[in-house]
Amino acid sequence: MELSGLQERISKAVKLISALKESEIEISLTPKDEVWRSDPVVLYRYRPLVAKPLPVPVLICYALIGTYDMVDLEVDRSFVKKLLVAGLDVYVIDWGKPKRSQRWHGFDDYVNGYLDDCVDVLRRASGAAAINLLGICQGGVFSLCYAALHPEKVKNLILTVTPVDFHADAAKKVPGAGYMNLWARSAREEDVDRMVEAWGNYPGPMVGFAFLLMNPIYNIAKYTTDLARIVDDEQKLKGFLRMERWIADRPDHPGELLREWLRELYIHNRLVKGEFGFGGRRVDLAQVTMPVLNVFAAEDVIVPPPSSRGLKGRCGTADYTEIEVPGGHIGTFVGSKAQKILAPAITDWIRARI
Amino acid sequence: MAMPAPWQAQLESMQRAIQDAAEKWRQTGAAGGEDKPGFAIPIAQFLETYQRSMQAFSGTLPESGDPFFAGLRHVFAGAHDAVGWGVYTRLADASAELARAQAAAGEAQAKAWQQIAATWETARARFVGQPARGEEPVKDAEAFLADWTRVLDAAAQEALQSEAGLAVTAEVNRATVRLRLAQNRVVELWSEIYNVPTRAELDEAYRLIHELRRDVRALKKGGT
Fold first, then answer.
1. Measured between alpha carbons, how far is A131 from A120 in angstroms, rounded to an integer?
2. Which of A17, A126, A241, B187: CA 20 to 30 A from B12?
3. What is the pLDDT of residue A38?
4. How many helices (H) and strands (E) does chain B have?
């Protein structure tokens, strides 16, 4: 493509984008119903797509860094829809947009509070004593802690792109990977404390900026060369814009939770040392006795694979499975290659354990 | 921060009267306004000390390393609070810290920009120095940009993840936090002046509610 051709395509992209209607780039369209609410937290149940879904429901626990919509970004590449089509009964927690009043919320509130409430809703609704818990990234850490503290309520635990050993990447430095780990380890405890003191809840745009630094140039180039490359493909263009919409929608991160997240896990790596705890209880990974499926992404630069794989040999179950999917952190759920693997693998794994 | 206008006017009037008296006294002394022989404190020093003491009294004396004036600030602090000036003294200090924090943030950001410039130069040198460059024509503009992006991104990531890069990032972060804390402090003092609940007060109320709700939850769930 000559430079003039590139310019032509970029101006064509601008015209196409300006002609798009808001409704054409909406995300999170799979039908669902609100079943429970507390503060900004809402529990949704997706409408089943089969007459008789599996009797033990699946609860998706996403991170507070970003929104749960990522599991249902587009109708054609919706992770949730694939699970529904496969016959699962799927619920998702929407953590909402934490306000100033959530400034003191920490792991105890999210894990022993909201998450436990949601699990109880599923148990009551389904009649199952224990449910399938599917955690994603930070939500995976919540889920892992929950499974260790309330093992009787979790039938199967599925972790996806979840950091467990926060220092595992240190042994083998991969260029471009694990920037967040490096940054956090270079910080001092008092830096984290002052950060929380200064902002209360950490502003969403600043969280977004930290992620932007992981791939600084590509994150700028995507608005020029990448956009020009896909401008003729309306579907890809809409997909690009939907992803942009999701990326831009970063909730503020509750201050106290951020303090625990950075200090206890990123700096001190207490989870794998058996030193992490909240609400007066220690998180003992040996108490994770239910079957565990641990999914990690081969090219994940946010949660390097060794960090996720650090769970192996540390939990108390004999039924432990690891799956590697191609692509990066978010690509695990929206990438075309990973999509072919992830939902079927999870569905088959759960079906074999119901 | 200036004291209330009527007080300020009174103080200035007093200062003028004393300065006039001092000037008259100086004119009666040694020729050329030199210090009168026999006095232990030179006139200029006396006047400066007097002026700074008045500033300390009025709450407008900036923080300094001088223990005498630091002590005076403490001596008058109670009186300032008693007559409502104390908050202005604190506001003056907070504003001074805000200015220092802004300068520090600027310096930290300048270091980051220096690093960005160095990274750009590293990438440029690598890009033009690639062995194949110059032998094969670039396919098209897109290929050119893609190649440049790849080289630049690799250089940027190297820079960010290096010891120096992490140190600069940490410095920018610390400076940003310091600036934010300084801004918070100024806003807090203005809130105090206008009797508006401060952020710290709201946080404290939220903390109390949070603790109560946590207790209620524990009771509901049977102490789990």
1. 9
2. B187
3. 94
4. 7, 0
A 10 A CB-CB count for A211 gives 18
Give the pLDDT band (50/70/90) at residue B179: very high
Query: In which residue are the tokens 């802004």 written?
Result: B102
Identity of the residue in B161, B173, B217 whose CB atom sits nearest the CB atom of A182:
B161
Question: A36 CB contacts (<8 Å, ≥6 apart)?
Answer: A42, A43, A117, A118, A121
DSSP-assigned letters across all residues of A256-306: HHHHIIIIIIIIT-HHHHT--EETTEE--GGG--S-EEEEEETT-SSS-HH
Low-confidence ranges of chain A (pLDDT < 70): 1-4, 6
Residue A73: phi, psi to the nearest 5? -65, -45
Chain A residue with minimum CA distance to B184? A198
User: pLDDT tens digit string along B6-49?
Assistant: 777 777 777 777 777 777 766 665 444 455 554 555 667 777 77
Runs of H (alpha helix) within B4-85: 5-27, 43-58, 67-83
- Cβ of A218 within 8 Å of Cβ of B153? The answer is yes
Q: Which residue type does A138 have?
A: Q
Whether the CA torsion B52, B57, B60, B64 is positive or negative: it is positive
pLDDT, mean over chain A = 92
Taking the complete model, does pTM exceed 0.90, yes or no?
no
Supply the pLDDT for residue B30.
Answer: 46
Both tokens of A150, joined, read 């309330």
Q: Would the CB atoms of B142 and A213 count as touching at under 8 Å?
A: no
Residues 6+ apart with CB under 8 A from A70: A62, A246, A330, A333, A334
